[in-house]
Design brief:
The structure holds 2 protein chains of 2 kinds.
Chain A: E1 14-23, E2 26-32, H1 36-42, E3 49-50, E4 57-58, E5 71-75, E6 81-86, E7 97-99, H2 114-117, H3 126-130, H4 137-149, E8 164-176, H5 180-191, E9 196-199, E10 216-217, E11 220-221, H6 222-235, E12 239-242, E13 245-251, E14 255-261, E15 276-288, E16 292-294, E17 307-309, H7 310-318, E18 327-332, H8 336-346, E19 350-355, H9 365-371, E20 375-378, E21 380-387, E22 391-400, E23 403-404, E24 408-411, E25 414-418, E26 421-423, H10 426-430, E27 434-438, E28 443-448, E29 453-455, H11 465-479, E30 515-517, E31 522-523, H12 524-532, H13 538-545, H14 558-569, H15 573-576, H16 590-594, H17 611-616, E32 620-624, E33 627-632, H18 640-653, E34 656-659, E35 664-669, H19 673-680, E36 693-699, E37 705-715, E38 718-723, H20 728-742, E39 749-752, E40 757-763, H21 767-772, E41 775-776, E42 789-795, E43 798-804, E44 812-818, H22 822-833, E45 839-840, H23 843-852, H24 893-896, E46 901-908, E47 920-922, E48 935-943, E49 948-956, E50 965-970, E51 973-980
Parallel strand pairs in A: 1-7, 8-9, 8-15, 9-12, 15-29, 17-25, 18-19, 18-25, 19-20, 34-45
Antiparallel strand pairs in A: 1-2, 3-4, 5-6, 5-7, 10-11, 13-14, 14-15, 16-26, 21-22, 22-23, 22-24, 27-28, 30-31, 32-33, 34-40, 35-38, 35-39, 36-37, 37-38, 40-44, 41-42, 42-43, 43-44, 46-49, 46-51, 47-48, 47-50, 48-49, 50-51
Chain B: E1 3-6, E2 10-13, E3 18-22, H1 36-44, E4 52-58, E5 66-72, E6 77-83
Antiparallel strand pairs in B: 1-2, 3-4, 4-5, 5-6
The chains are: A alpha+beta, B mainly beta.
Domain Aminomethyltransferase C-terminal (chain A): 901-986
GO molecular function (chain A): sarcosine oxidase activity
Domain FAD/NAD(P)-binding (chain A): 172-449
């Protein structure tokens, strides 16, 4: 019968809006406002999963985000399958397909349950002790098998089709939690006019008020008070109230991360609605009103489906109008469960209550509940449960004279247990605040704050409703910088409990399965075993037994585990310590963390104005810094070697065209521009004529090469500086650093112009003829426009800075045009060069051509420990200059010492063998290991122009070894090489002046 | 993530900034005149205090300006920020035990 356990009235569900979803294929009816847990319970479903290790039948323990057992897979449609959702958190809606986990072939009959019969074997540390030999089985056999048998849900296989948003926000006061304390804090802060954000993890704000319809606040019903408070907050422009928003991380300086669930609960969400939104809030002050978690009692078979937390039974009755059972026994060590029992009785449920406290230890709640007609049994322990997939009876026994008396069974179909309360100090602990142990509360409470933060209500150990409201209001006013105070009148809260560790039992302790951590299947016996084996630190016990290490982070289990360990060691609880709480408070989807940063938005990709042309003409691309550069242009049937060889020949014999737009460009302008350049580069700049270019070399202050590039002087006060592709930002930062902090007196402006210019390199003997017909206003003759000079004019009607420079060793030009003209000019050059067989070439050919000439690439021939002299560029240094960045360091003893690695060329004895870049070099391959390594190969290619392989290397005292034979590692051993000059082609350099 | 008070722009998120190491290390006016030991000290030797530390910061993804900051290396809290060439108001001697 559908919803047989739905109460005829009551609850916050909307009975006019029925919904329907499936659970393992079975139709489940519920109402809008239900969670999956409440709808399942309304239909009498308690068995919802199998436990992690022993595959024991498990039910719903809790009503909130602390649920450790009821983990389900939620299917919201194609591609939208999400495992390990807590049934008590997922809002029920039409069309969901809910599937149980960790069972095969079915939930009711699970083969893995054999693990439970073998449980005497599967004790804590079982895996460490058992699966040790042989070593080769670790990865291939043990881990896959164990992982398949143990575990949670199945990870989705397809890409997440949902969209995730993110948002940054600032506020004066962030209130975490909208229960009574949080609402009072929010009202107080809001009244000051400060900007307030209130975040609450539930679908409705109100916290505990949502299931206390009989409570009174300031003479009004709790619901009326709650509605008025939310109405006031909603009406204020300075307040943002966010339901379904979990604060999961508390980081430095009140940087708080939270996730808002936007769409999952809606079956009518418009297309494009983000599924979740990640908020990053920077709050001046934070109020933590995160409430508390109820502790289970630790007794034999306390994990039977139908055994729940007492307050959760109350929530299902009052908030969802569901009776979790027809005959419910409450088992408790404190007062709060009496109220749950009374509410259950009032809802028409057959109720009994067992209290482990002696009659004299109980408060007035015992007489109060008896007066309501409920059997109350005090001074009894719980020794077990009956039933298998659903609890059928609670086995209790009287405690007398330190012993356990005769057992009796109380028949029931639901147990509500309460072992007391634990303040939810997770976020406080994440904020690095120091916890303090309060013996009267048997709990850790917030002690010394580390950040601008304060806790209120149950999160700070205050359980009385009026006191919660008071503390919340005070926290809110203080956080907002006000000293206003208000006291609230509220109906009495029944509080107080006696700490209960593992309950006394008459059974053989070695056989009792009393669960502490329900999600990781850790029993009290496991904890005791760990202590017997010598684990004393709670951090070690935790790791050995895995207690508290599941995705619920031990919300329901940590205090029980601590208490049992403290008792076992005979030490006071605070000396055992508490474990560190870390983000996230509850599991967060990867999607929320990633947000929009995926696919094209994962990392920026920079492309040049000529990129599309290159793509259309079959280029393959490589990543250089964030740039995507054309690597080579294979024709049909060509591999990389043949394509690069063809491109190289074209440049040497005719003309090639290359996209150099990624070169970094910095405009250095101002009356002191030349002086600035003089101080920053090793070269001399004062006398460089307007219209001339110079190869510039830049050092760090420690004397090592930072960057290089051609610099053109366009006017007395204007330089066009180029940098390597990858280092442009670093060079500009380096320049700005010196300009701003060392030489603020220099009148110079620095502007990055990398993106403003497209650079088209036209290289080869036919370069001049190629561009001659396109250029206006510039005399291209060798006399008027020699190598290493620059002219301004027009090309194809576009303004241009035309450089006569070469990184190939052949006659060449680099055409700089405003980026918008880049592609048009490129296409015009390609057309004009057609008679000469103009060939587009990519970075690979560029590398080969420059290596043939012995030109270095900073970052390839250099590694941050290389001086100008090391790479043979000492001649660039203007030694007459009194100072430049790095000059003093070049006189450091280490940089002058013999034995530094120097740039040389290497010729392999086998001309077809191309060495590996990075390969090590030794003098004698037969020397004993470890060998003395002389250096390494920095660049290595097959050179079509030379008809053989070429390589450059950094070798200790390399220049003195010219002509000597050395040995280089290869995948097959060593190969012999001859040391030579690093210039392999056109050594006298006549071709660039053609 | 913390907010850093750029002396030119005001409070901005940490991700806009770049730290440039210890502040108030003057480059010798004439490096050629200092001996190797002093030069090595200038290049390589830095304080590493537990507590207040004067640092150079640049508002890289903002105004681009370098400035100085006093930061507590223990709490990661910025005590004050000030322009290059200025001295902090807060005494630098305060360090933690």
């Amino acid at each position: 019968m559908a919803q047989a356990f739905r109460l005829p009235m009551g609850g916050r569900i909307d009975r006019s809006k029925p919904i329907r979803f499936t659970f393992d294929g079975r139709m489940i009816d519920g109402f809008t406002g239900d969670t999956v847990a409440s709808a399942l319970l309304a239909n009498g479903v308690h068995l919802v999963g199998r436990s992690f290790k022993y595959h024991r039948p498990r039910g719903i323990l809790s009503h909130g985000s602390d649920e450790p057992s009821a983990l389900l897979s939620v299917d919201r449609g194609p591609g939208r399958v999400d495992p390990n959702n807590r049934a008590s958190v997922v809002e029920a809606r039409d069309g969901l397909k809910i599937v149980s986990q960790n069972r095969w072939p079915s939930l009711a009959f699970d083969v893995g349950a054999v693990n439970d019969l073998l449980s005497p074997v599967f004790v804590a540390g079982f895996y460490y002790k058992t699966f040790m030999w042989p070593r080769s089985f670790w990865d291939k056999v043990y881990e896959p098998v164990i992982r398949a048998a143990a575990g949670l849900g199945v990870a989705p296989q397809v890409a997440d089709p949902d969209r995730y948003a993110n948002r940054h926000a600032h506020c004066d006061v962030l209130v975490v939690g909208a229960g009574p304390a949080g609402l009072a804090a929010a009202l107080a802060a809001a009244e000051t006019g400060k900007r307030v954000i209130v975040a609450d993890e539930q679908a409705e704000p109100g916290g505990a008020l949502l299931h206390q319809p009989d409570a009174l606040i300031d003479g009004r019903g709790a619901e009326a008070w709650r509605a008025a408070a939310i109405g006031e907050l909603d009406a204020r422009e300075n307040v943002v109230l966010l339901p379904r928003t979990t604060v999961f991380g508390y980081y430095n300086h009140n940087h708080v991360a939270m996730v808002e669930r936007v769409a999952d609960h809606r079956s009518d969400a418009p297309a494009g609605t983000p599924r979740e939104r990640l908020w990053q809030v920077r709050a001046a002050e934070v109020v933590l009103a995160t409430g508390s978690h109820e502790r289970p009692l630790v007794f034999a078979d306390n994990d039977r489906p139908g055994v729940m937390l007492a307050e959760s039974v109350r929530v299902f009755i009052n908030r969802y109008g569901v009776a979790p059972g027809r005959r419910t026994v409450f088992a408790t060590s404190g007062a709060s469960a009496y109220v749950a029992a009374a509410d259950a009785k009032a809802a028409g449920i057959d109720v009994a209550l067992v209290d482990i406290r002696e009659e004299r230890e109980c408060g007035p709640e015992a007489a109060w509940l008896r007066a309501a007609g409920v059997d109350v049994l005090t001074g009894h322990t719980i020794v077990g449960t009956q039933g298998r997939k659903r609890v059928e009876g609670l086995v209790v026994a009287p405690l007398s004279n330190g012993g356990v008396g005769a057992r009796r069974v109380i028949a029931c179909d639901c147990v509500g247990m309460s072992g007391g309360w634990t303040p939810a100090v997770h976020l406080f602990s994440q904020s690095r605040g120091k916890l303090a142990f309060d013996a009267a509360l048997d709990a850790f409470v917030p002690g010394v704050s580390a950040q601008a933060e304060r806790s209120a209500g149950a999160a700070s150990g205050i359980y009385d409703l009026a006191a919660c409201l008071d503390s919340g209001f005070t926290a809110g006013t203080r956080a907002a910088g006000s000293s206003a105070r208000r006291t609230f009148a509220a109906s009495e809260t029944r509080i107080g409990f006696k700490p209960a560790r593992a309950l006394p039992t008459d059974a053989n302790p070695a056989k009792v399965r009393a669960f502490v951590d329900f999600q990781n299947d850790v029993t009290a016996k496991d904890l005791k075993l760990a202590m017997r084996e010598g684990f004393e630190s709670i951090e070690h016990v935790k790791r050995y037994t895995t207690t508290g290490m599941a995705t619920d982070q031990g919300k329901t289990s940590n205090m029980n585990a601590l208490g049992i360990v403290a008792e076992g060691l005979g030490r006071p609880l605070p000396s055992v310590g508490t474990t560190t709480f870390r983000p996230p408070y509850t599991p967060v989807t990867f999607g929320a963390l990633v947000g929009p940063a995926r696919h094209a938005l994962f990392d920026p990709i920079r492309t040049t104005p000529i990129h599309e042309w290159a793509a259309e003409h079959g280029a393959t691309f490589e990543n250089v810094a964030l740039w995507r550069r054309a690597w080579y242009f294979p024709r049909p049937g060509e591999d990389r070697q043949t394509a690069v060889a063809r491109e190289c020949r074209a440049v040497r014999e005719g003309v090639g065209v290359f996209d150099g737009s990624t070169l970094g460009k910095i405009e250095v302008v101002g009356p002191d521009a030349a002086e600035f350049m003089n101080r920053l580069y090793v070269n001399a700049w004062i006398k460089l004529g307007v219209g001339r270019c110079r190869y510039g070399l830049m050092l760090k202050e420690d004397g090592y090469i930072l960057d290089d590039g051609v610099v053109a002087r366009l006017a007395d006060d204007r330089f066009h500086v180029t940098t390597t592709t990858g280092r442009a930002p670093r060079v500009l930062a380096h320049m700005e650093d010196y300009l701003q902090t060392e030489w603020p007196e220099l009148d110079v402006f620095l502007t990055s112009t990398t993106e403003q210019w497209a650079v088209i390199a036209v290289q080869g003997p036919k370069a001049r003829e190629t561009i001659a017909g396109l250029v206006a206003g510039i005399d291209l003759s060798n006399e008027a426009f020699p190598h290493m000079s620059v002219r301004e004019g027009h090309i194809c009607g576009a303004p241009c800075r035309l450089f006569r420079v070469s990184f190939t060793g052949d006659l060449g030009y680099e055409i700089n045009v405003p980026s918008d003209y880049g592609r048009a000019v490129w296409e015009a050059v390609v057309e004009a060069g057609a008679p000469f067989g103009i060939t587009p070439y990519g970075t690979e050919t560029m590398h080969v051509l420059r290596a043939e000439k012995g030109y270095i690439i900073v970052g390839q021939e250099t590694d941050g420990t290389v001086t100008p002299d090391d790479v043979g560029l000492a001649g660039m240094i203007a030694r007459a200059k009194p100072d430049f960045v790095g000059k003093r360091s070049l006189a450091r003893p280490d940089l002058l010492a013999a034995g530094r690695k120097q740039l040389v060329g290497l010729a392999t004895s086998d001309p077809s063998l191309v060495l590996d870049e990075g390969a090590q070099i030794v003098a004698d391959p037969n020397q004993p290991i470890p060998m003395t390594m002389l250096g390494h190969v920095t660049s290595s290619y097959f050179s079509p122009s030379c008809g053989r392989s070429i390589a450059m290397a950094l070798v200790a005292d390399g220049r003195a070894l010219t002509g000597r034979t050395l040995h280089v590692t290869t995948p097959d051993g060593f190969t012999a090489v001859t040391v030579r000059e690093p210039v392999f082609f056109d050594p006298d350099g006549s071709r660039v002046n053609a | 993530m913390l907010l850093i008070d750029c002396p030119f722009c005001g409070k901005r998120p940490e991700v806009e900034f770049h730290c440039g190491g210890e502040a108030h290390i003057a480059r010798p006016a004439d490096p050629a005149q200092v001996d190797d030991a002093i030069w090595a000290e200038h290049l390589f030797v830095r304080k590493n205090p537990r507590g207040l530390h004067a640092e150079r910061w640049r508002h890289l993804h903002g105004c681009g300006q370098w400035f100085n900051a006093l930061r507590d290396t223990y709490t990661d809290r910025f005590v004050e920020t000030y322009k290059a060439g200025e001295q902090p108001k807060h005494p630098l001697t305060e360090t933690r035990a």
